[in-house]
Design a protein that fits this description.
about 260 residues, alpha/beta, six-stranded mixed β-sheet, four-stranded antiparallel β-sheet, about 40% helix, about 25% strand, globular, binds adenosine-5'-triphosphate, binds magnesium ion
Protein backbone atom coordinates (compact mmCIF):
# COMPACT_ATOMS: atom_id res chain seq x y z
CA UNK A 1 0.00 0.00 0.00
CA UNK A 2 1.36 3.46 -0.85
CA UNK A 3 2.70 5.21 2.22
CA UNK A 4 0.35 7.65 3.87
CA UNK A 5 -2.58 6.87 1.59
CA UNK A 6 -5.92 7.53 3.24
CA UNK A 7 -7.90 5.78 0.52
CA UNK A 8 -6.59 2.95 -1.61
CA UNK A 9 -8.42 1.38 -4.53
CA UNK A 10 -6.54 -1.82 -5.21
CA UNK A 11 -7.10 -3.59 -8.53
CA UNK A 12 -10.83 -3.03 -8.20
CA UNK A 13 -13.37 -4.08 -10.80
CA UNK A 14 -17.14 -3.87 -10.79
CA UNK A 15 -19.29 -5.92 -13.10
CA UNK A 16 -23.07 -5.91 -13.32
CA UNK A 17 -25.64 -8.30 -14.75
CA UNK A 18 -23.58 -11.45 -14.37
CA UNK A 19 -20.54 -9.83 -15.91
CA UNK A 20 -22.24 -8.59 -19.07
CA UNK A 21 -21.77 -4.95 -18.00
CA UNK A 22 -18.31 -3.85 -16.92
CA UNK A 23 -18.68 -0.63 -14.93
CA UNK A 24 -14.91 -0.42 -14.43
CA UNK A 25 -11.98 -2.80 -14.53
CA UNK A 26 -8.66 -3.00 -12.71
CA UNK A 27 -8.74 0.41 -11.12
CA UNK A 28 -5.80 1.39 -8.93
CA UNK A 29 -5.99 4.72 -7.17
CA UNK A 30 -4.74 6.17 -3.98
CA UNK A 31 -5.70 9.36 -2.24
CA UNK A 32 -3.40 10.86 0.34
CA UNK A 33 -4.58 12.33 3.58
CA UNK A 34 -5.93 15.87 2.98
CA UNK A 35 -5.70 15.45 -0.76
CA UNK A 36 -8.41 16.38 -3.27
CA UNK A 37 -8.60 13.88 -6.12
CA UNK A 38 -10.93 14.91 -8.93
CA UNK A 39 -12.21 12.33 -11.37
CA UNK A 40 -13.34 13.22 -14.89
CA UNK A 41 -14.49 10.89 -17.62
CA UNK A 42 -17.23 10.31 -20.17
CA UNK A 43 -20.73 9.30 -19.19
CA UNK A 44 -20.93 5.62 -18.31
CA UNK A 45 -17.22 5.08 -17.59
CA UNK A 46 -18.01 3.97 -14.04
CA UNK A 47 -17.31 7.09 -11.98
CA UNK A 48 -20.41 6.92 -9.80
CA UNK A 49 -20.11 3.16 -9.39
CA UNK A 50 -16.49 3.57 -8.31
CA UNK A 51 -17.49 6.18 -5.75
CA UNK A 52 -20.24 3.91 -4.45
CA UNK A 53 -17.66 1.15 -3.96
CA UNK A 54 -15.32 3.54 -2.14
CA UNK A 55 -18.20 4.66 0.07
CA UNK A 56 -19.04 1.08 0.98
CA UNK A 57 -22.48 1.25 -0.66
CA UNK A 58 -21.57 -1.43 -3.18
CA UNK A 59 -19.00 -4.24 -3.04
CA UNK A 60 -16.44 -4.41 -5.86
CA UNK A 61 -16.60 -7.64 -7.90
CA UNK A 62 -12.82 -8.02 -7.61
CA UNK A 63 -10.05 -6.19 -5.83
CA UNK A 64 -10.63 -4.07 -2.77
CA UNK A 65 -11.02 -0.60 -1.31
CA UNK A 66 -9.15 0.38 1.86
CA UNK A 67 -9.64 3.44 4.03
CA UNK A 68 -6.97 3.97 6.69
CA UNK A 69 -5.71 0.52 5.78
CA UNK A 70 -9.03 -1.16 6.59
CA UNK A 71 -11.06 -2.92 3.88
CA UNK A 72 -14.34 -1.13 3.24
CA UNK A 73 -17.38 -3.38 3.38
CA UNK A 74 -20.05 -0.90 4.41
CA UNK A 75 -20.46 2.86 4.88
CA UNK A 76 -18.09 4.10 7.55
CA UNK A 77 -18.35 6.82 10.16
CA UNK A 78 -16.27 9.80 9.11
CA UNK A 79 -16.89 9.22 5.42
CA UNK A 80 -19.60 11.47 4.01
CA UNK A 81 -21.16 10.85 0.64
CA UNK A 82 -22.75 13.61 -1.39
CA UNK A 83 -24.70 12.20 -4.30
CA UNK A 84 -27.26 13.75 -6.52
CA UNK A 85 -30.70 12.84 -5.18
CA UNK A 86 -29.04 11.00 -2.34
CA UNK A 87 -31.16 10.51 0.68
CA UNK A 88 -32.79 13.85 1.44
CA UNK A 89 -35.75 13.12 3.66
CA UNK A 90 -38.76 14.57 1.84
CA UNK A 91 -40.81 14.98 5.01
CA UNK A 92 -38.13 17.01 6.76
CA UNK A 93 -37.37 20.69 6.23
CA UNK A 94 -33.97 21.96 5.09
CA UNK A 95 -32.86 22.60 8.64
CA UNK A 96 -34.05 19.19 9.86
CA UNK A 97 -32.39 17.44 6.95
CA UNK A 98 -29.07 19.08 7.77
CA UNK A 99 -29.56 18.41 11.49
CA UNK A 100 -30.38 14.77 10.89
CA UNK A 101 -26.82 13.59 10.34
CA UNK A 102 -25.62 15.56 13.35
CA UNK A 103 -28.29 14.06 15.59
CA UNK A 104 -27.34 10.56 14.54
CA UNK A 105 -23.70 11.43 15.26
CA UNK A 106 -24.77 12.41 18.78
CA UNK A 107 -23.95 16.13 18.56
CA UNK A 108 -25.14 18.40 21.37
CA UNK A 109 -28.00 20.88 20.88
CA UNK A 110 -25.61 23.84 20.97
CA UNK A 111 -23.27 22.30 18.46
CA UNK A 112 -26.15 21.42 16.16
CA UNK A 113 -27.54 24.96 16.33
CA UNK A 114 -24.15 26.47 15.63
CA UNK A 115 -23.23 24.17 12.75
CA UNK A 116 -26.67 24.35 11.15
CA UNK A 117 -26.55 28.07 10.86
CA UNK A 118 -23.01 28.07 9.56
CA UNK A 119 -23.39 25.39 6.91
CA UNK A 120 -26.81 26.46 5.69
CA UNK A 121 -25.37 29.93 5.16
CA UNK A 122 -22.25 28.49 3.55
CA UNK A 123 -24.22 26.76 0.81
CA UNK A 124 -26.42 29.82 0.28
CA UNK A 125 -29.65 28.48 1.72
CA UNK A 126 -30.21 31.07 4.44
CA UNK A 127 -33.89 31.98 4.34
CA UNK A 128 -34.90 28.52 3.15
CA UNK A 129 -34.43 26.73 6.47
CA UNK A 130 -38.09 25.80 6.76
CA UNK A 131 -38.67 24.78 3.17
CA UNK A 132 -39.18 21.13 2.27
CA UNK A 133 -37.15 19.46 -0.49
CA UNK A 134 -40.09 19.56 -2.95
CA UNK A 135 -40.15 23.34 -2.56
CA UNK A 136 -36.53 23.65 -3.69
CA UNK A 137 -34.87 23.52 -7.10
CA UNK A 138 -32.63 20.57 -7.98
CA UNK A 139 -29.54 22.65 -7.34
CA UNK A 140 -30.82 23.79 -3.96
CA UNK A 141 -31.57 20.21 -2.98
CA UNK A 142 -28.01 19.29 -3.86
CA UNK A 143 -26.76 22.09 -1.67
CA UNK A 144 -28.81 20.73 1.23
CA UNK A 145 -27.04 17.40 0.71
CA UNK A 146 -23.69 19.17 0.69
CA UNK A 147 -24.49 21.12 3.87
CA UNK A 148 -25.62 17.95 5.60
CA UNK A 149 -22.40 16.16 4.69
CA UNK A 150 -20.16 19.07 5.69
CA UNK A 151 -21.95 19.65 9.00
CA UNK A 152 -20.88 16.31 10.42
CA UNK A 153 -17.25 17.35 9.88
CA UNK A 154 -16.24 14.15 8.07
CA UNK A 155 -12.62 13.14 7.48
CA UNK A 156 -13.43 12.01 3.97
CA UNK A 157 -15.87 13.55 1.53
CA UNK A 158 -16.98 11.59 -1.53
CA UNK A 159 -18.71 14.00 -3.85
CA UNK A 160 -20.53 13.06 -7.03
CA UNK A 161 -21.19 15.98 -9.38
CA UNK A 162 -22.68 18.21 -6.72
CA UNK A 163 -22.95 21.22 -8.98
CA UNK A 164 -24.39 19.49 -12.03
CA UNK A 165 -27.73 21.24 -11.78
CA UNK A 166 -26.83 24.62 -10.34
CA UNK A 167 -26.53 27.69 -12.53
CA UNK A 168 -23.10 28.87 -13.65
CA UNK A 169 -22.84 31.72 -11.13
CA UNK A 170 -23.85 29.60 -8.15
CA UNK A 171 -21.44 26.95 -9.33
CA UNK A 172 -18.54 29.39 -9.23
CA UNK A 173 -19.55 30.59 -5.78
CA UNK A 174 -19.75 27.01 -4.50
CA UNK A 175 -16.38 26.16 -6.07
CA UNK A 176 -14.84 29.06 -4.19
CA UNK A 177 -16.56 27.96 -0.99
CA UNK A 178 -15.19 24.46 -1.42
CA UNK A 179 -11.69 25.84 -2.02
CA UNK A 180 -11.93 27.91 1.14
CA UNK A 181 -13.36 25.01 3.07
CA UNK A 182 -10.44 22.89 1.96
CA UNK A 183 -8.00 25.58 3.07
CA UNK A 184 -9.60 25.69 6.49
CA UNK A 185 -10.39 22.07 7.13
CA UNK A 186 -8.19 20.02 4.77
CA UNK A 187 -10.57 17.18 4.18
CA UNK A 188 -9.61 14.22 2.06
CA UNK A 189 -11.91 14.43 -0.94
CA UNK A 190 -12.80 12.54 -4.05
CA UNK A 191 -14.73 14.81 -6.34
CA UNK A 192 -16.40 13.64 -9.52
CA UNK A 193 -17.20 16.23 -12.13
CA UNK A 194 -17.85 16.55 -15.84
CA UNK A 195 -16.07 19.88 -15.84
CA UNK A 196 -12.36 19.81 -16.68
CA UNK A 197 -12.18 23.39 -15.42
CA UNK A 198 -13.65 22.44 -12.05
CA UNK A 199 -11.33 19.44 -11.73
CA UNK A 200 -8.23 21.61 -12.22
CA UNK A 201 -9.46 24.41 -9.97
CA UNK A 202 -10.32 22.07 -7.08
CA UNK A 203 -8.00 19.10 -7.44
CA UNK A 204 -4.51 18.31 -6.23
CA UNK A 205 -4.61 15.58 -8.85
CA UNK A 206 -7.04 14.72 -11.64
CA UNK A 207 -7.78 11.13 -12.62
CA UNK A 208 -8.98 10.82 -16.19
CA UNK A 209 -11.19 7.80 -16.83
CA UNK A 210 -12.07 6.18 -20.13
CA UNK A 211 -15.08 4.04 -21.04
CA UNK A 212 -15.67 0.53 -22.35
CA UNK A 213 -14.32 -0.82 -20.16
CA UNK A 214 -14.28 1.89 -17.52
CA UNK A 215 -10.71 2.44 -16.39
CA UNK A 216 -8.30 5.06 -15.16
CA UNK A 217 -6.35 6.28 -18.15
CA UNK A 218 -4.09 8.79 -16.48
CA UNK A 219 -3.61 10.66 -13.21
CA UNK A 220 -2.27 14.20 -13.52
CA UNK A 221 -0.83 16.36 -10.77
CA UNK A 222 -2.23 19.87 -10.64
CA UNK A 223 0.95 21.66 -9.67
CA UNK A 224 -0.69 24.98 -8.91
CA UNK A 225 -0.15 26.44 -5.44
CA UNK A 226 -2.85 26.82 -2.78
CA UNK A 227 -4.63 28.86 -1.67
CA UNK A 228 -6.07 29.16 -5.15
CA UNK A 229 -8.00 31.98 -6.65
CA UNK A 230 -10.02 30.47 -9.53
CA UNK A 231 -9.54 33.58 -11.69
CA UNK A 232 -5.78 33.42 -11.28
CA UNK A 233 -5.71 29.66 -11.84
CA UNK A 234 -7.59 30.11 -15.13
CA UNK A 235 -5.04 32.70 -16.22
CA UNK A 236 -2.06 30.40 -15.56
CA UNK A 237 -0.38 28.77 -18.56
CA UNK A 238 -0.26 25.47 -16.65
CA UNK A 239 -4.07 25.57 -16.41
CA UNK A 240 -4.46 25.91 -20.18
CA UNK A 241 -1.87 23.21 -20.78
CA UNK A 242 -3.66 20.78 -18.47
CA UNK A 243 -7.11 21.62 -19.77
CA UNK A 244 -6.02 20.99 -23.35
CA UNK A 245 -4.26 17.78 -22.38
CA UNK A 246 -7.28 16.38 -20.51
CA UNK A 247 -9.60 17.43 -23.31
CA UNK A 248 -7.40 15.54 -25.82
CA UNK A 249 -7.57 12.49 -23.54
CA UNK A 250 -11.34 12.68 -23.34
CA UNK A 251 -12.08 13.65 -26.92
CA UNK A 252 -11.95 10.14 -28.45
CA UNK A 253 -14.34 8.82 -25.79
CA UNK A 254 -16.89 11.62 -25.94
CA UNK A 255 -17.17 11.41 -29.71
CA UNK A 256 -18.90 7.99 -29.41
N1 LIG B 1 -27.05 -1.20 -10.67
C1 LIG B 1 -26.61 -1.35 -11.92
N2 LIG B 1 -26.98 -2.42 -12.65
C2 LIG B 1 -26.52 -2.60 -13.90
N3 LIG B 1 -25.66 -1.76 -14.52
C3 LIG B 1 -25.27 -0.68 -13.84
C4 LIG B 1 -25.71 -0.40 -12.51
N4 LIG B 1 -25.13 0.75 -12.10
C5 LIG B 1 -24.37 1.18 -13.13
N5 LIG B 1 -24.46 0.33 -14.17
C6 LIG B 1 -23.72 0.43 -15.45
O1 LIG B 1 -22.35 0.64 -15.15
C7 LIG B 1 -21.79 1.57 -16.07
C8 LIG B 1 -21.17 2.72 -15.31
O2 LIG B 1 -22.20 3.50 -14.70
P1 LIG B 1 -21.89 4.76 -13.80
O3 LIG B 1 -23.16 5.29 -13.30
O4 LIG B 1 -20.87 4.39 -12.79
O5 LIG B 1 -21.23 5.77 -14.84
P2 LIG B 1 -20.79 7.28 -14.68
O6 LIG B 1 -19.37 7.35 -15.14
O7 LIG B 1 -21.09 7.75 -13.32
O8 LIG B 1 -21.72 8.02 -15.75
P3 LIG B 1 -22.32 9.51 -15.69
O9 LIG B 1 -21.19 10.42 -16.06
O10 LIG B 1 -23.36 9.47 -16.78
O11 LIG B 1 -22.90 9.75 -14.35
C9 LIG B 1 -22.91 1.98 -17.03
O12 LIG B 1 -22.81 1.19 -18.18
C10 LIG B 1 -24.15 1.63 -16.25
O13 LIG B 1 -25.20 1.30 -17.12
MG1 LIG C 1 -22.35 9.25 -12.55
Amino acid sequence: MPNGAKIVVDHASKLFLEGSVVAFRNVDLNVRNNEVLCIVGPSGCGKTTLLRCIGGLLPPSAGQVLIDGQPVHRPRAGVAIVFQHFGLLPWKSVIDNVAFGLKIAGASRELIAQRLDHYIRLVGLAGFENHYPYQLSGGMQQRVGLARALAIDPEVLLINEPFASVDAQTREVLQEELLQLHERERKTMIFITHSIDEAIILGDRVAVMAARPGRVKEVLTVDLPRPRDPAKVRAASRYTEMRNHIWEELRPTVAM
